[in-house]
Please model this.
Amino acid sequence: MFPRRTAVLRVVIVCGVVFTSLSMWISSKNSSDLEYRMRHLMQNEQSNGISQLKSLTNNTSDQADHRQVILIPPTSSRSFQPTPDSNAKHRHMETFQNFYGSLSMKDLVAFKKEFSRTERYNNSNNHDFEYIIVNKNLCSSQSPFVIVWIHTSPDHFKQRLMIRQTWGNPRNHPDGSVKIIFIMGKASSKTLQDSLHMESERYGDIVQENFVDSYKNLTYKAIAGMKWVSSYCSGAKYALKSDDDIFVNVFNLVRHLKSFEKHKVTEKVLLCNVWHKMRVLRDKKSKWYIAEEEFKDDFFPMYCSGSAYIMSGDVVKGMFQVSLSTPFFWVDDFYVTGLLAHRLDLKHQSFNSVYHFKAGAVEAFTEGRKRELLVFAHLHGLNHFYNMWNGVVRREAERSPHLLSLTTRHST
Model:
C-alpha cells in the first residue's frame, strides 16, 4: 500500500516541476515578446502606431491592478513589489478627520482659521515619493507659455500616442510655447516598467513617481504634477492639468490665455468648469462612494471639474506648498481645487463655456457657432479623437495654411 502512495507522490512532484518550468518559460517568452514589440513600435509608430499599441495594451492591461488603495513608502526606483498596508486607508481617514474635525464646509472662514492657528500638521502629507522617471530637462532650454500635465496610467500607451500625434504634438507650436508631460504612478510589473523606460527615452515626456497607480491615489498624481512643474518648469506662465481622454483645442487655448495675459490676468488664476453644490455620493456600489466618516456634509463646497483646469504659475507653486500640510483626501479634484484653493484664498473663475461634454462634440468643435470658443471635450474612441483633430486643423488652416500638414491619416 505504501509503495503505491510513494509512486503517486512522485508523479505529483514531477507534474508540479514540469508545470512550474512551463509557466516560467511562458512568462519569459511573453516578457521578451512584449519588449520586442515595444521596441518595434517605437521605430514604426508613424505607420503602425495605433493598431500595435491596441494589441500591446490589451496584453498588458490584465496584469495591472488599479484598485489598490495603499500607500507605498519610497523605495528603490527599480523595485516592483508593492508593500500592502492594510491600515493605509484607515490612517488617511483618521488623519483627515483629526485635521478637519467634523468637516462641515458651510463656514470656510472657520476652516481657514483652523489652518492658521495650528502647526501640528506642517508635515501631515509629505509627498516624498521617489522619481522613477523624471525628465527634468524638458523646460531647461526654454520656459513654455503653457505647460500641460496629463494624468495617465502606465498601460495607457495608445492614449499617450494619440495625444502626441494630435493636440500634444510639438510641431503644433515650434516656438516651444506649449509643452506636455504625462504623470503616472508605479507600474504593476517589471515588463511594463521596462516598456515605459523605452517610451520615455523615445519621447522624453513621462514623469513617474513611486506610488501605486490607482483610482484612489489620484490625489498623489495631482500633487506629483504640481511638484514637477514647481521644480522643473517653474517659468511657465500658465499650467493646464488634464486627463488622457480629454481633447484640447490648443489653438483656442493659447488664444484665450494670450488674451488674459494682455489684460494682466497672470496671477492667482484658477480657470475651470466650476461645480456648485455637488452632492456627495453615499451609494456603496459607486466608485465615488464617500462614507460619512470621511466627509459629513451632503454637498461639496465649490470646486472644479477634474477633467481640465488652468492655473497661473504662482498658483501651482502655492498649491504644492500647502498640499504638504493638508492631509490626504482621495477625491483629487476636490482636494486640489477645493481644499487647496480655499487655503490660498483663490476665487474660482468660471470657464464653463469652453467645455463640451455632450454628444456631437466633433461637429461643435469644427462647424458649430461656438467653435472659436471651445477648448475641452471628453471623447470616447480613437476615431472621434482623430476626426476632431483633423477638423480643428482644417479650420485653423484658414488662418495659417501651413497647419494642414498637422492633420493625421488616422481619420475615418
User: Anything to note?
Assistant: The two ends are 72 Å apart (CA to CA). DSSP finds eleven helices and eleven strands in the chain. Residues 2-61 form the longest helix (60 residues).
